[in-house]
Design goal:
about 475 residues, alpha+beta, about 30% strand, disordered N terminus
Length: about 475
């Protein structure tokens, strides 16, 4: 009896000693991972449900520009049907057509579009072009997991005073310049009519290869990671797993370069205000560093910032200068615009969403990340009450309506109200530090996937262990 009792006492002492050590080790591991125990449990139990694009696409293009400003594009795209349906046709966005004389007669110098040929698997095909919707009929149904190759051959010019797809003082901005494969879901092509306010196109992640031949004297800024200054007039750029490809051909007067880690940041300006461009490059480097530390890796080794045109994001490139026809008021406002567009490299560029139906998921989150960076940088408290006051008098509309269901004040909801309500999630749940952890977890869960409102709510509800969806009813349509 005495021997048994002694062994029992020793066992109790041993357990009492080991348990705290194990708990300390586990806690230390979690702490080193920069995450909370709750977050670790979530990672083990939560499975993402992304929205499928319905297809996989790979583009290959030959792009040339002559000295008179006429482009020629020979573009092919191989499309694999990954939906559960058989297709009788293919649908593309063709946004350049929105700036032609017939559709935009108000433009003094509209775009010219001349199709030479369209082929399907090497055979000449008919097509229907209605505004920005390009419809290609298929002679045989395309079954699940089958692919088809479409080739487009056409000449075009860029309009003056266009929108994104534009030329200005001999500088060319090739945004959405090629036929872009629409997404396919709910047994139909997910394609809505073009709107001039907001981003009304939505594509899946694709691979791109572009061979180019342009006149000498232009600086190229593109989605490519290896643009040079001065630029070669002939070459090839390749990008994989990206939403779209953008190319600008610029008569640059000033360029400011800096490096942030292994990312080369280039600020390209069209006047000689080099001091401003240097300031912008420093701000961009600080913002890029912050976003990489607190959200996730930036996907490219180069970031181009073009100080001209509408404030807009493209993979690997941002433009900044104006809100539509209104230039920003001062240098600080310009810097904030640049930061917002950089934030889109994560919210749109890496985590995708349908910007026609649920624009708040990129615009609201990009604005949220922008203010998170600015308040963290300046060491300021979040002015929660002031944020809520700004949206208090808005009509009680949700922020996740399609663009055509808002009036002229859509930005008040998609940017303003969504931004304020996102902050409200953290007012009593850890503030800035927890917001950073939330974005990092969100990025880890959804990088290179598409999210909709339903999935965002599901993730957030799980993250905060919310018992119901009452937190979201004030601002989201569920």
């Amino acid at each position: 009896m005495i021997v048994i009792r002694s062994k029992f006492v020793l066992l109790v002492i041993l357990i009492a000693t080991i348990i705290p050590l194990v708990f300390f080790a586990v806690s230390k591991k979690i702490q080193n991972a920069d995450s909370t125990p709750v977050e670790e449990i979530q990672k083990a139990n939560f499975k993402s449900k992304s929205v499928p694009a319905g297809s996989e696409s790979a583009y290959e293009m030959n792009l040339t520009l002559n000295k008179e400003g006429m482009f020629h594009l020979d573009s092919s795209v191989t499309i694999k049907n990954t939906s559960g349906d058989s297709w009788e046709n293919l649908v593309f966005y063709f946004i350049p057509n929105m700036f032609t004389k017939d559709i935009a007669p108000h433009l003094d110098h509209p775009a010219i579009i001349q199709f030479n040929e369209v082929t399907v698997n090497g055979e000449t095909s008919s097509f229907e072009l209605n505004k920005d919707t390009l419809n290609i009929p298929l002679r045989e149904k395309l079954l699940k997991n089958q692919d088809v190759t479409i080739k487009f051959d056409y000449h075009f010019t860029l309009p003056e005073k266009g929108l994104r797809f534009n030329q200005n003082n001999g500088n060319y901005y090739l945004a959405q310049f090629y036929p872009m494969v629409a997404t396919y879901r709910n047994h139909k092509w997910n394609k809505k009519d073009h709107r001039f306010k907001g981003e009304t196109y939505h594509t899946g992640f694709s691979d791109f290869k572009v061979n180019y031949d342009i006149p000498k004297g232009y600086t190229m800024a593109s989605t490519s990671e290896s643009d040079q200054y001065p630029s070669e007039n002939q070459g090839t750029l390749e990008v994989r797993n990206t939403k779209e490809i953008f190319i600008a051909l610029l008569k640059t007067k000033s360029i400011a370069e800096t490096d942030q880690g292994d990312v080369n940041i280039r600020v390209l300006g069209l006047d000689e205000n080099h001091a401003l461009y240097e300031d912008i490059s420093k701000e961009a480097a600080a913002a890029l560093h912050y976003f990489q530390e607190n959200i996730g890796p930036y996907p490219y080794k180069q970031l181009d910032i073009i100080i001209d045109q509408l404030g807009m994001e493209y993979p690997g490139v941002v433009t900044s200068h104006s809100l539509y026809d209104t230039p920003v008021q001062d240098d600080e406002a310009l810097k904030r615009m640049v930061i917002h567009e950089i934030a889109h490299q994560w919210f749109y560029g890496v985590i995708s969403n349908d910007s026609y139906h649920e624009a708040w998921l990129d615009e609201g989150l990009a604005d949220f990340a922008t203010t998170l960076y600015l308040y963290s940088k300046e060491g300021k408290d979040i002015p929660y009450k002031a944020m809520y006051q700004q949206v208090k008098n808005l009509e009680p509309l949700p922020v996740n309506l399609p663009l055509d269901q808002y009036e002229a004040n859509s930005s008040s909801y998609i940017y303003g109200k969504s931004h304020a309500m996102l902050w409200k999630l953290f007012e009593k749940r850890g503030g800035k530090k927890e917001a950073e952890k939330f974005l990092k977890s969100y990025y880890r869960m959804y990088n290179y996937k598409e999210v909709n409102t339903q999935e965002f709510v599901r993730f957030t509800q799980h993250y905060f262990n919310l018992k119901d969806q009452n937190t979201f009813k004030e601002w989201l349509k569920l």
